[in-house]
Design brief:
- The chain has 15 helices and eight strands.
- It folds into three domains: 2-102; 108-299, von Willebrand factor, type A domain (Rossmann fold), CATH 3.40.50; 303-453, no CATH class.
- α5 runs antiparallel to α6.
- The chain is an alpha/beta fold and 454 residues long.
- The longest helix is centred in the C-terminal third of the chain and has 35 residues, at 419-453.
- It has helices at 2-35, 42-64, 67-70, 74-102, 129-141, 173-181, 191-201, 235-244, 263-274, 286-299, 302-319, 325-337, 343-369, 377-410, 419-453; strands at residues 108-115, 123-124, 127-128, 148-154, 163-170, 218-225, 251-258, 280-283.
- Strands 5-4-1-6-7-8 form a six-stranded mixed beta sheet, with helices on both faces. Strands 2-3 form a two-stranded antiparallel ribbon.
- Mean pLDDT is 78; it is low at 69-79, 90-94 and 96-105.
- The protein starts with a helix and ends with a helix.
- It is elongated.
């Protein structure tokens, strides 16, 4: 009799353990589905999945043994199951809100169209093309966190729809890089269909800032492919899609063929690029792909580098030099020394000071727009130099203003001991530092622009 009871007890324990394992497996599967929800940031879905695991496990256990969960009091049951569910729902809603915010308007939008067909399994430099492309794409997009990025992949069945893996949005560099590295090449190359779909992606009104001149927008489709279109896609579809694009979206295209040796395939890719008034480039190594991508990454900064130089020089022209505030002040000192009236020269100093200060104020908002805190390091170095230059300009304006006030008030000049002489010495020292930083800026800017021009 005791042996029979023992056997029954062991069976019940095994059943309980089995129920627990099944409950945990069910909960794990359900939470895994939550963790990979589309259109929700990874941090949000993972956190929600972690919160959901305990209540889902209990709910699964209840299916097989209701008493295991419902023995608790009603309020305790609501706490055990309701609180995590509410928390998970809140996390998903917040994450979706952030996702919508990321898809907001941007002045710079780049969509990468990456070949995932079998041709990308071919070798180049001893490595699969897809590995080379993923590596170089990762390095490239990491420098464009100031840009809305997206990723569309193609390859597989000719009738399949190229997949939008990462929607266009700010802060998507890591997601694009991760998705590119996870791509497993196979199937045919439906390249034309992918470009058609990418053009359509730019029809989303959420990507179009209100009240912005289309000329100020940078919208680019970057195609990296290991072959031409092996599905013989209809190029007229692409032309029709381009014609249907919103009038305020001007798309630029870059086509890069990776390790394409066949001349007819190269010709087909050139023909595809020509249909959208673009050019096809060809990379025969990882280094060549890196150089081509660098041109694409940095191209948007070319005008900005020149604008930085412009806003600094415009203000500096009113402060330094013979015909600027500093020169006019020296003219006033000379007049004072010759017992002549410095009134005219003083008026010129004040006019130059007012013009310099006004130009500083007028260019401030534009200067702040030129900041790219997450842009290429070479560009950030230039912007940081100009931050210091504008600080020096403001300080030099204040020094010249004080010097001319002393001259006008009590006739003291830079030749007199005390405050006037000290201020002038500070002015000259800062002017020398300003010129040195200008030389540094020009040297770095020339190197940067040379890299853009190749």
């Amino acid at each position: 009799m005791a042996k029979e009871l023992s056997t029954v007890g062991m069976a019940e324990q095994l059943r309980d353990h089995f129920q627990t394992v099944i409950s945990l497996l069910v909960a794990f599967v359900l939470t895994s589905l939550v963790a990979i929800l589309p259109n929700v940031p990874r941090w949000s879905s993972l956190a929600a999945a972690a919160l959901l695991l305990p209540p889902l496990a209990l709910a699964s256990l209840w299916v097989t043994d209701p008493r295991a969960v419902w023995r608790a009091r009603r309020r305790k049951r609501l706490t055990i199951l309701g609180a995590p569910l509410a928390g998970a729902a809140a996390l998903l809603l917040v994450g979706a809100g952030f996702q919508d915010q990321e898809r907001g308007p941007s002045l710079s939008n780049y969509e990468l169209v990456l070949d995932g067909s079998a041709t990308m399994a071919g070798q180049l430099d001893g490595l699969p093309k897809i590995d080379i492309a993923a590596e170089e794409v990762g390095e490239s997009v990491s420098q464009r966190n100031d840009t809305a990025l997206g990723l569309r992949t193609f390859g597989g069945d000719c009738e399949s729809e190229p997949e939008l893996v990462v929607e266009l949005g700010a802060g998507h560099a890591d997601r694009v890089e991760d998705a590119a590295r996870e791509l497993d090449p196979g199937g045919e190359s439906n390249l034309v269909a992918a470009v058609v779909a990418a053009v359509d992606d730019f029809s989303d009104p959420q990507l179009l800032p209100d009240g912005v001149d289309p000329d100020d927008l940078e919208n680019r489709i970057l195609v990296i492919t290991g072959s031409s279109d092996t599905c013989k896609g209809d190029l007229s579809r692409l032309e029709e899609q381009v014609e249907r694009s919103p009038s305020n979206v001007e798309l630029e295209y870059t086509f890069i063929g990776l390790g394409i040796e066949n001349e007819s395939s190269q010709a087909e890719l050139r023909e595809l690029a020509a249909r959208v008034d673009a050019e096809a480039f060809f990379a025969e190594s990882a280094n060549q792909l890196d150089e081509l991508l660098d041109e694409v990454v940095y191209d948007g900064y070319f005008d900005d580098v020149n604008e930085l130089t412009k806003v600094i020089n415009e203000v500096g022209d009113f402060i330094f030099g013979e015909d600027a505030a500093a020169g006019a002040y020296l003219d006033a000192v000379d007049a004072q020394r010759a017992s002549e009236s410095p009134t005219t020269a003083i008026r010129e100093v004040r006019e130059d000071i007012a013009a310099a200060r006004q130009r500083l104020e007028e260019t401030e908002s534009h200067f702040q727009e030129l900041e790219k805190p997450l842009g290429p390091e070479k560009y950030r170095e230039l912007w940081e130099i100009d931050v210091e230059q504008r600080k020096i300009q403001r300080e030099e304006i204040a020094r010249i203003e004080e010097l001319v006030s002393m001259l006008e008030r009590d006739g003291t000049t830079l030749e007199d001991k005390g405050a006037p002489k000290r201020l002038w010495e500070e002015f000259e020292a800062e002017h020398e530092r300003y010129d040195g930083r200008n030389d540094d800026f020009e040297e770095k800017a020339d190197a940067f622009l040379d890299s853009l021009l190749g």
